[in-house]
Each structure stands twice: as structure tokens, then as C-alpha cells.
Amino acid sequence: MDKIKTRPKQARAKARVETILNATHSLLINGKPEDVSTTAIARAANVPVGSIYQYFEDRNDILRQLYETAYMEVSNQVVISLKSIDSSIGFDAINRKQLHCFWQTARNHPTFRALTRWANHEYSFAEVTPGVKSGLGELIKDTLQVGGIELQSNRRDAVLQTTVTLVSALIDAAIEEDDEDKAQALIDELATVLSCYLG
Q: How many structural domains does the chain have?
């Protein structure tokens, strides 16, 4: 979803939007989302504050776009991982590998953790929970397919939405968890629940 107010057409305007996004990205790496203001972004990007509002609604608009980009980067790594998995290892092992891949990739991404915290604090649970047609929904469908799991047609949508919601909530909790052992335990429990529910 593209949230830029005015789609830049000229190279100079496109460069300015990219500069604003890069400056915000740098601020996130070096601080907390709550410290990222339009004034701080303008200062870091060396642009007038008015330039930010020319292309974005507000700072949340910028953070939302960066979150979508980070989510796509993490998802792409998980898709690559799934392609390399031998389907003969069975759903339980595939499920665990994919959950660990998603969690580790997300935690190692330079801004995903900070942006997840921002989204979880800025929006309601319903607003941050992706749908079945989201990137996460597609990853789950692909994992089920590789794992040889076929859902009953009359339950398919409900099972997928339940799975997406559960995975989204617990992955986010694990990403936000500062204690690595507790985060690992959440991912392991999520894998166990999904194997029982889906396998």
C-alpha cells in the first residue's frame, strides 16, 4: 500500500522522498520509534519540515511505509527458505523451520523490531493482524502446501484466519520480547500449537 501523498514524478522529488525514508530508517536504527518526529526526520534528511508534509501525511505515514518494506524484506527471506526445504521432512519440521526462520530474520532485520513495536502500540490488535490474503497469509498457505496439509473446504477460510492471527500475535510477542530464551520458548510453543492444530 503506497501512502505517499503526492507521487513524485521528477527525479529530484523522488530523490527527496528516498532521502526522507532513508533518514527515518537511520533514526530507527539508532533510537526508538517514539523519538522519531517530523522535526528529527527533517533534520536528519537535511530538508525543510514542509517537504515531509508535501509527500507524507505525518510521521506515522512514513513509519507505515517503512514497516511494509521491512515486512516484505523479511517475508522474502522466509519464502527463499521455504523453497529450499525438503518436503519429505514432514509438516511439523517444516512448520518449525519456517517459524524460526521468520522470527530470526525479523529479529535480525535492522528496523523490523522497532517498527513492530511501533505498529503494535499505535494500532489496535485488529488493525495490525493481517488477513488471509496478506503476505503472512500467503506464507502460511505455502507452508501448508509444502508440508502436504490440505484443509477441508468448509473450514479453509476460518482455519487460515485463525492461523494467521495466532502466528501474527505470537511472532510479534516474540519479536518484542527482550529475553532471548523467553522469545525462543514462545516460538517453540507456537510451533507445537500449529502442529497440533494443522497437522
A: 2
